[in-house]
Amino acid sequence: MVIDKVPIDLLVKNMIFATGTVLKIFFLTILLSIPLGFLVALARGSRYKIISVPTRIYQLIFRGTPLMLQLFFFMYAPYYIFDTGFERFTACIIAFVINYAAYFGEIFRGGIAAIPKGQYEAAKVLGYSKLQTFTRIILPQVIKHVIPATGNEFMTLVKDTSLAQVISVKEIYDVASNAGSRYFSTIPLVVAGVFYLVMNTVIEFIFKYIEKKLNYYKT
């Protein structure tokens, strides 16, 4: 068996192109799942069981099953149920958003629960409305509490984009595995690892900067 030399320049060019797909998945997931996760947190904390119980079940399902299976479900299940389906990239985004909203919902719920009840009572005495109390007093503290866990989820999301290849969405890992098979080499996988590491290093730096900026807010 002859092992061909891996054309690094072509490999890097293809991975840079595939990085565009990774970034699209990343930013669309963040843009949609964070607001949805916030609603999930509020629904989970509702005193009405008709709202909180279905929310808990939703979180259990999407946090308790592999994202890979969820990608397959949203890609193929609609064809069997409705005789129509989603385009591959659309199915990918739906699966990622619903999955990550379940995780963000739990993170935000924990952040809200960490705020002492006395702060709500103090705000009421000072004449703040419920909306003013939440937006001006509670929310800034919640943001500080959830920054570390949120940063961790961002970094996990970068790595999870590699799962998109199971429904044939062309991203970095797909390019690397195809090149590895073609040239009988692990070099493409190493190069892919460098791409993921660089992206997560940037995220780590950004969140450390945010944490530093929020240090003034003592709780």
Automatic annotation (TrEMBL):
Membrane topology: Multi-pass membrane protein
InterPro entries (alphabetical): AA_ABC_transptr_permease_3TM (IPR010065), ArtM/GltK/GlnP/TcyL/YhdX-like (IPR043429), MetI-like (IPR000515), MetI-like_sf (IPR035906)
Main location: membrane
TM segment ranges: 15-40, 60-82, 88-108, 187-210
One of the record's GO cellular component terms: ATP-binding cassette (ABC) transporter complex
GO molecular function, one term: transmembrane transporter activity
Location within or outside the cell: Cell membrane
Keyword vocabulary terms for this entry: Amino-acid transport, Cell membrane, Membrane, Transmembrane, Transmembrane helix, Transport
Any one Gene Ontology BP term: amino acid transport
Pfam families xref list: BPD_transp_1
ABC transmembrane type-1 domain sequence ranges: 19-207
Similarity field: Belongs to the binding-protein-dependent transport system permease family.
Protein's name in the database: ABC transmembrane type-1 domain-containing protein
Originating species: Herbinix luporum
